[in-house]
Each structure stands twice: as structure tokens, then as C-alpha cells.
Amino acid sequence: MENSHQAPFGWRMDQAESLIRKRVLSIDPDFVCFQELPGLVPYVETHELIPANTVSHCGNLATLLRRGLLDQVESRAIGRNAVLSAMESVGFSIANVHLPPGSQGEVERLAAIERIVSICPTPNLLVVGDTNTRISETSAIEALGIRGELPPAPTWDSRRNRFREDGKRFTAYFTRYFHRGGCEVKDVRVFNQAWNVDDARFFLSDHFALAGRVNL
Fold first, then answer.
1. How far is C-alpha 139 from the chain's CA centre?
2. Which domains does the chain carry?
């Protein structure tokens, strides 16, 4: 929820929150996973905040759940990297993650995913969020018994998304998902189109939002 340097002059956090709310309502998901929040959790009237949360190396993680489902979920923070929410009645868990950054963080990322997999109480698991993983790490992660798939388009593209003026221009799949058990991830979308507000074209984050549907 930082401001892109391409945002209109005077752009406020509550305006960004309003657009995030609009996007969530249009998708109508059961789970919403946020990373790198500044302490404010965007308000969505159809959802409740899962009480487990943590602070990663950069901002807060928060998970929203559709109203009426909260009493079916047990949640816990796993270190500073993840919030794991389990619905044992249907045998499904979702881990909202923000894993350590940089090429030097590969060992820590693998260890974090290994811990999530080992702790997860259900046969079906989805790990999703800002994984910071490189494509070359997929085989080592899959050796833990969790499958990795790339979204249909990069979820980081600093050639198109000039969120900051400085920095290297490249594409990556930092925001992505891994799953195990009988999970089938379908209808995956990457929201890589800029918002148009007050004659300005800009993004709300340096990452592109990711959405999909899990069938059990």
C-alpha cells in the first residue's frame, strides 16, 4: 500500500484501500492473502480477519476469510514467514506466505516451506503469496512433496510496472503457489493491468495480484 511514483499527486492510502476492496468484491473469494501491509488491513465488508498474523522482513501478513467461515478455521503463525489456516472439516489448509528475499535467501525459503509442509494438519495444502522464489528453486521445493506451478503471466514486471523510479528492470514469478494432496488449482489470473485514475495509469503494488480457484 505504498504509493507508486506514477500515482496521482496527493494519492492517499484510503484511496488505495478502496480500490483493493473493489477488486476483492469483484473476485468474491473465500480467502484473501495480503503481504507487506503497513499495519492497516484493507476493509472488505464480506470478510473477517483471521486472528493469527505475523510481521515478515517487510510489513505485515494478514488473511481474510469469507464471513460465516471463521469458526471452521484454526490458524497459527509459523515464524515470521507464514500464517497457516486449516479447515480440518474439509481437509484443506492455506498458507499465506512472505518468504525471505534475494538470491541469498534460497536456503531460508526452502526451510520455511519444509516447516509449513511438516506442520500442516490436513492432506490438502495450498502455499500462496510472495514466495520470492526463483524458477530454478522449484525442483528442490517439489522434493518436499508439494507441486509448483507458474501463474499464466509474470507476477513481477518492473519493465511495465514502474512502481519505483530506480531499480533493475526484470520479470519474475515471485508471487506464486504450490500445492499438495487432491488440490487442483484452476482459473488462475494475474491482474497485470494498471488502474486508471485522474488521468494517471499506475499499480497499487510492485507485485501483481494473483487469484485462482482450488478444487478438492
1. 21
2. 13-215 (3.60.10.10)
